[in-house]
Design goal:
single chain; alpha/beta; Purple Acid Phosphatase, chain A, domain 2; 5-stranded mixed β-sheet; 5 helices; about 25% strand
């Protein structure tokens, strides 16, 4: 069983096609690609921490459908675009605005928003966040897990640590 992290899927939200310049011709194409990428990456027995902004402008029934279609045991760390229907949807193993977990011996602070400082940052704890869509220059031990940064799919802690390279805003050539 693996543990994955993701954020800012924005299922059903046409704004991300324009604002974040996601490379999809329509919201339907966007949503289908994210579902396919998620299920190619995550097995049914894996755990996924979604760090906010799951879906917007979709019916409650569609949110439930998405959660049923997507592989893994899903936890929601609430984002600014997660409304009442997202919070109430069946399919979340847990819902919270902040979490502290340990994965592979590493302590993590999880929140939709990036922190300037966080608990035990000087003791090696890592800060995983979303919200910035790859536009925020990371600090040491801080990782944006948003789909805009990770080829529109969830990512593991090992992948986060390996792929640290000079920062460029998402979408920059």
């Amino acid at each position: 069983m693996g543990t994955f992290f993701t954020s800012d899927t924005h299922f059903g939200d046409s704004r991300v096609l324009r604002i974040d310049r996601r490379p999809f011709a329509s919201v339907a194409e966007h949503d289908e690609a994210l579902i396919r990428n998620w299920n190619e990456t995550v097995a049914p027995e894996d755990e996924v921490w979604h760090l906010g902004d799951f879906a917007l402008h979709v019916k409650a029934s569609r949110i439930g459908e998405l959660l049923a279609i997507l592989n893994g045991k899903k936890h929601l760390v609430v984002g600014n675009n997660d409304g009442a229907d997202t919070l109430a949807a069946e399919g979340w193993a847990s819902r919270q605005t902040y979490a502290e977990i340990v994965v592979d011996g590493t302590a993590l602070v999880l929140c939709h928003y990036a922190f300037r400082t966080w608990k035990n940052m000087g003791r090696g704890w890592l800060d995983l966040h979303g919200h910035s869509h790859g536009r925020l220059r990371p600090q040491t031990r801080q990782y944006d897990v948003g789909v805009d940064v990770w080829n529109y799919r969830p990512v593991t802690l090992a992948q986060l640590r390996v792929r640290r390279k000079p920062w460029k805003p998402a979408g920059a050539e």
